[in-house]
Amino acid sequence: MSLRIAIAGAGLLGRLFALHLARAGHAVRVFDPAPDAQARGAAGWTAAGMLSPVAELECADEQVFALGLRSLALWPALVASLPSPVDLRFAGSLLLAHRGDEGAARRVIDLLAAKAPAGRAPQPVTGEQLRELEPDVQRMAHAWLLPGEGQIDTVQAMAALAEAAAAAGARFHWSRPVESLGAGWVQAAGERTEADWVIDVRGTGARPEQPVRGVRGEIIHLHAPGLHLNRPLRLLHPRHRVYIVPRTGDRIVVGASEIESEDRSPISVRSIVELLTAAHSVLPALAEARLLHTDTNLRPALPDNLPELRCAPGMLEVNGLFRHGWLIAPALVEEGLARLGVAGATDGNPP
Ligand SMILES: Cc1cc2nc3c(=O)[nH]c(=O)nc-3n(C[C@H](O)[C@H](O)[C@H](O)COP(=O)(O)OP(=O)(O)OC[C@H]3O[C@@H](n4cnc5c(N)ncnc54)[C@H](O)[C@@H]3O)c2cc1C
User: Fold this and answer.
1) Which of 32, 244, 259 to mutate to test the pocket of ligand 1 (most atoms within 8 A of CB)?
2) Which domains are seen in the chain, by residue range?
3) Where is the FAD dependent oxidoreductase domain (predicted)?
């Protein structure tokens, strides 16, 4: 039976729900304040796209870890089903620490080793192994490999998800913010739409219905021809969380600040200096990279910084994906579709 589905929010979750539900033959309408499918308001566009279930255990729980593992299994078929290429890699990620930062690094490694199941704990990497894995990385005092972790090009994926959902029949209503919503109805731009199910995935826009807040994140895009990086790096630093993620076309993403503020203004000089100084200490060749652009966005977080999926008749709410959205979204969407009791094509294949 074909159901009428109204989705509030065309960010990462909104696009995934729209894709699966439209492919399963439901009548899907999606409402979002963005002027078009390419406008970059959603946090999903800004994300570095690391798919790191173990590294994220530093600030997440077993539920996020389990959703992350499930999503790692779902992403390949999903990406393969999209109409345009999306760079998705599973070459693991590296945790690195400079001499003198042993204390901070040890604390994180011990935490991850204690929380990760046997066989997934960080694996120490010798200097020689590090040179083989990442020849352009500076000699580091300490390095650990997290095998199996991945990364996705979020800009390519956001565009391809909307394209695929529209091709499957989902109707996107751009420049139409949802003003109010309830079980079985949404009101956008003064017009009420009735639905069998409303899916509220407005991220930080879901107030006051959800106790969500935005956590500011700043990120830097570089062009670094000649620099080779095979996998994401995270520097374990006493003060700054810094990661460096390779993208296609000789591009590198350096991120990210994590600031308790809903300020969406451009990146601060302090963040640029701290992020790039730390990144350059790991990859000296970055000195000649060119700064392409910077981006700032808000991670949607609930009070406990954990994701939540709430389902009542006629209404599904998913929010609080915080800093792990790309890591856990496919599995959360799969769970959401199961709660709705509707068929969805979560393996990426049309039914
Ligand atoms: C700097 C940064 C780095 C990140 N790095 C990573 C990473 O490496 N790995 C990872 O897994 N995650 C990362 N994330 C987190 C990830 O981007 C988010 O968790 C994810 O985008 C949340 O998805 P969402 O669909 O809930 O929200 P969003 O993607 O923010 O989408 C919400 C949508 O709702 C719309 N909306 C708002 N108000 C309304 C309204 N009234 N009516 C209709 N629509 C509305 C918005 O326009 C938007 O399109 C990062 C985030 C940031 C900011």
Assistant:
1) 32
2) 4-82+153-210+304-340 (3.50.50.60), 93-147+214-301 (3.30.9.10)
3) 4-332
